[in-house]
Amino acid sequence: MTAIKLTDVRKSFGRTEIIRGVNLSIPKGERHAIIGPNGAGKTTLFNLISGRFPITSGSIEVNGRSTAGLAPQEINRLGLSRSFQITSIFPRMTVFENIRCGLLWARGYRYSFWHLLGGQKGLNEEAEALLERLNLAGRRNLLAGLLSYAEQRALEIGITIAGGADIILLDEPTAGMSHSETDYAVDLIRRVSEGKTLLMVEHDMGVVFGLADRITVLVYGEVIASDVPTAIRGNAAVREAYLGTEAA
Ligand SMILES: Nc1ncnc2c1ncn2[C@@H]1O[C@H](COP(=O)(O)OP(=O)(O)OP(=O)(O)O)[C@@H](O)[C@H]1O
Ligand SMILES: [Mg+2]
User: Fold this and answer.
1) Cβ of 13 below 6 Å from ligand 1
2) What digits encode the pLDDT tens for the residues 206-242?
3) Structural domain count of the chain
4) Which atom of ligand 1 lies closest to the CA of 85?
5) How far is CA 167 from CA 95, 124, 208, in A?
6) Which atom of ligand 1 is nearest to the CA of 16?
7) Nearest to residue 224, comparing CAs of 211, 240, 244, 212?
8) Which domain holds residue 21?
9) Which residue among 132, 152, 162, 232 sits deepest, i.e. has the most Cβ atoms within 10 Å of its Cβ?
10) CATH code assigned at 147
């Protein structure tokens, strides 16, 4: 069964074609990384898959269903959840409240949930369990804005997975992290994506080669290679286009 399937997907902004005929098929349960130089169109691809922007032509399927004409929250209901390249937590809410908000959001309450606070016992238990998985239980009452950068990203991943989606999109989850923070994040991502489909954009080759079952290389809106890590590492065109400087 295929989790995400892109068929000849194209996207233009004005006259510029940014995504130029991408085909990509990601089986359920795969950890898949998209790499490529700045401006290649990686985030744009995420925006198309998650429904933030409509595609210009081609087709996208999520869990076997066409996403044509669907709004982001409808695609979310097909089982897909994404994080953003820029941190998107609520800094003036506590860690616990952020997670609970993520859970409520996933249940479709959006921002009108404060009417319901208090009567959500199951929800609180779920939030506690998720905080444990994120190693953030000890921080539960801290304002999220006071967490370390790595902890904020962990919280963000928590919010992303809160709805129980079986497909997770992470855009540069380790960007701006130190070595040890990155190790921590990789471990966390590996744990929370267990049994799910993971699609991530990532510049850190250590993270990519450590986590991904398969890697797709996007250059100027086109896939130049999509294969297992060892094959990508040995691919001359990939080395020339991208890896040469980083993997040398
Ligand atoms: N909403 C938009 N309107 C017009 N152009 C856009 C829009 N979003 C992205 N672009 C352009 O599309 C191209 C690809 O951008 P995108 O953000 O997808 O690249 P990226 O591969 O994620 O890069 P990075 O590695 O720097 O995050 C860029 O030239 C960018 O300026
Ligand atoms: Mg990007």
Assistant:
1) yes
2) 999 999 999 999 999 999 999 999 999 999 988 887 7
3) 1
4) 27
5) 24, 24, 18
6) 5
7) 240
8) 2-247
9) 232
10) 3.40.50.300
